[in-house]
Amino acid sequence: MTWFDLTLEARDGSRHVVRYNPHTSECEGLSLPFSPGKFVAVPRVAKDRPLGKSRAPRILKIQLGLSCNYACAYCNQAVQIGDATVSKLADVEAFLAGLNGWIEGAPERIELWGGEPFLYWAKIKRLVPALAARFPTAAFSIITNGSLLDREKIDFIAQYDIAVGISHDGPGQYLRGPDPLDDPGKRRWIVALLAERPDKTGFNALLTRQHHDLRALKAWFAEEVGPDIFVGLEGVVNVYDAATALGTGRFEPAELNSLTRSIFEALVEDPNAFGLGERINEFYSSIQRRRPIEALGQKCGMDSPDAIAVDLRGNVMTCQNTGAKGGHKIGHVAEFDAIALDTATHFAFREECMSCPVVQLCKGSCMFLEGEFFKQSCANEFAFNFGVMMAAVWHLTGMVVVGVSKSIKISNPPQTLSAEC
Ligand SMILES: C[S@@+](CC[C@H](N)C(=O)[O-])C[C@H]1O[C@@H](n2cnc3c(N)ncnc32)[C@H](O)[C@@H]1O
Ligand code: SF4
Ligand code: SF4
């Protein structure tokens, strides 16, 4: 059993211990009412234990292509671009005509992905009305760099009630490329979309080695766009290529500490800062309901048979960020039963995740990363999620987590097995 002792420090300097088991979500020392939930074990994917996909997916991700008008320093798709299929408008017709052959029921969510999705405007214009007619209950969403909006697109977005996330790193935007907010012609449409659809539009920022100060991030958006605009976090940078490993994704140990502190402080000030309140609540609920680790899928959800990423030629990929001409092609909708997700590793097969105190929050980082890239991404995710956990504990106890150590829970007091991790 994996128990951790969290050492908490009160304002008066006194120390207290909370015991937490991320495998069973048992926790001793936090006042959360116990209300057991019902859970089912999720299937766990590995290269030698591939998983198929459901013909009735809850989430349908359509990759329009990986072309982009930006070249962000950390782009997780950069190494995949050569592997992306290039499709024509005619492929949209074939894709739509072929839908009946493989899909059953209606997805809850349909996500349109690039590259930069609005580079594929003609395809979006053909695809969305047809999908909306075919799946009237499905909710649409698009993640964009925000540089290609105009009146026609905003009207279309409103007509089909498309939720839009604009990726923008505030003070760190220069790592992504030009700032569309600096260009009056582009800014105008971003501002218009935010004003016209405030509940369905927001910014998403990614935290990097250079920019992970949430106070600075908040101040930047308040100053540049206004204090009431929703700014969420895409998270912390994961590492997909050597340039990111040496650059935006390589936090020094002191920088990892400041990332944790920054998340903690932002959430102490505002328990829902950057929309992270959801994560705190999920953590509380996991403890209250005793969510077992067996019920946890990967963070991105793409290990689930219920989520499928396809391109317009019907290829099925590991996820929307990968190209179908390379190793991430896991099948084709025309041979649906042969689809095999054999490119990913559920965190249950990673030793570090199975002995990690924040696994219920992190859910294993990216499922297809390996080696040094995984290690670096894991370090970044740990620092990020530990900040969330600290804030969750602080809001219940008013105390700061100052240490975590593994323990064996035998009797009171616990025996510490290893030094702080
Ligand atoms: C790959 S982009 C594609 C959509 C669009 N071009 C955009 O930038 O919004 C989707 C999201 O992935 C995020 N992203 C890119 N590289 C990443 C990385 N290395 N780690 C974590 N998120 C990343 C981006 O910030 C963006 O929010
Ligand atoms: S993160 Fe988005 S905008 Fe940036 S290069 Fe990648 S696909 Fe393009
Ligand atoms: S922080 Fe690292 S070890 Fe912990 S769950 Fe995430 S990826 Fe796994």
What does this protein structure show overall?
With 421 residues, this protein is an alpha/beta fold. It has a domain at 59-268 and 295-348: TIM Barrel (Alpha-Beta Barrel). 31% of the residues lie in helices and 18% in strands. Strands 9-8-7-6-5-4-10-11-12 form a nine-stranded mixed beta sheet. α1 links the parallel β4 (59-63) and β5. The radius of gyration is 22 Å and the shape is globular. The chain starts with a strand and ends in a 5-residue tail after the last strand. It binds S-adenosylmethionine (SAM) and iron/sulfur cluster (2 copies). S-adenosylmethionine binds next to β6, β8 and β9.
| Strand arrangement in the largest pleated sheet | 9-8-7-6-5-4-10-11-12
CATH level-3 fold name of the domain at 59-268 and 295-348 = TIM Barrel
The ordered string of helix (H) and strand (E) elements is: EEEEHEHEHEHEHEHHHEEEHHHEE
Helix content: 25-40%
Distance between the termini: 17 Å
Based on secondary structure, the structural category is alpha/beta
Radius of gyration: 22 Å
- Helix count from the secondary structure assignment: 11
In short:
Strands 9-8-7-6-5-4-10-11-12 form a nine-stranded mixed β-sheet. Helix 1 runs parallel beside helix 2. It is α/β, with parallel strands linked by helices and 421 residues long.
